[in-house]
Design a protein that fits this description.
The complex is a heterodimer of chains A (112) and B (116). Chain A has strands at 4-5, 11-14, 19-25, 32-38, 45-51, 54-58, 61-66, 71-76, 85-92, 101-102, 106-111. By secondary structure, chain A is an all-beta fold. In chain A, the strands form two sheets. In chain A, strands 2, 4, 5, 9, 10 and 11 form a six-stranded mixed β-sheet that branches. The relative contact order of chain A is 0.34. The mean pLDDT of chain A is 92. Chain B has 116 residues and is mainly beta. Chain B is built from no helices and eleven strands. The mean pLDDT of chain B is 92. Chain B is globular. Chain B has strands at 4-6, 10-13, 19-25, 31-38, 42-49, 56-57, 64-70, 73-78, 87-94, 106-107, 111-115. Classes of the chains: A mainly beta (112), B mainly beta (116).
Chain lengths: 112, 116
């Protein structure tokens, strides 16, 4: 079993839909949680960063961490075709500069 | 606004060639990483370095070596390229602690290497 599990998709939604992307993990020692967005043939870029449990909102994006369930989510409201990308979750034990453990990524397609 | 630069976007090399992939960061990060990314396998760590001249093996170091002579530069070397090393190679860097106000990794744009 992988330490971090993520449904590979692809997830296809119509423009304007609310998108929910999820990761589960097995190690309760993870404290820092991140979401990266990767466009085709590009490197991943940091989208959201959260520490411990709770929610964090940035524009149309909301990151949610439920440490009791070992489950993290990224919600995208009013999805746009430009949101079409692969989304990778990542997490670390001590701080976000240390070794990250990545999920395999979920490919999202937002259709006009 | 260039932060992590990988020397080539696309490379085609022949089996048996020695291949050098270069990565330079301008953020004064201590840590640097090399990953390869393959469909269905996600990101796999090849090597990382937490300081100049220091290196640590990742999950899949076989067939690769690295060099870090300067803080800003981390090179990945394929000693004798093989077709199973055809992949997307990603370099990343990070501070060693979040006290410096930066989080997570910053990735380069990747090098798509094809070995024929």
């Amino acid at each position: 079993q992988k330490e971090v599990e993520q449904d590979p998709g692809p997830l296809s939604v119509p423009e304007g839909a609310i998108v929910s992307l999820n990761c589960t993990y097995s190690n309760s020692a993870f404290q820092y949680f991140m979401w990266y967005r990767q466009y085709s043939r590009k490197g991943p870029e940091l989208l959201m960063y959260t520490y411990s449990s709770g929610n964090k909102e940035d524009g149309r994006f909301t990151a949610q961490v439920d440490k009791s369930s070992k489950y993290i989510s990224l919600f995208i409201r009013d999805s746009q075709p430009s949101d079409s990308a692969t989304y990778l979750c990542a997490m670390s034990f001590n701080n976000a500069g240390n070794m990250l453990t990545f999920g395999g990524g979920t490919r999202l397609m937002v259709k006009p | 606004d260039v932060k992590v630069t990988q020397s080539s976007r696309y490379l085609v090399k022949r089996t048996g060639e020695k291949v050098f992939l270069e990565c330079v960061q301008d953020m004064d990060h201590e840590n640097m990483f090399w990953y390869r990314q393959d469909p269905g396998l996600g990101l796999r760590l090849i090597y990382f370095s937490y300081d100049v001249k220091m290196k640590e093996k990742g999950d899949i170091p076989e067939g690769y070596s690295v060099s870090r002579e300067k803080k800003e530069r981390f090179s990945l070397i394929l000693e004798s390229a093989s077709t199973n090393q055809t992949s997307m190679y990603l370099c990343a860097s990070s501070f060693s602690s979040t006290g410096q106000g930066d989080y997570g990794y910053t990735f380069g744009s990747g090098t798509r290497l094809t070995v024929v």
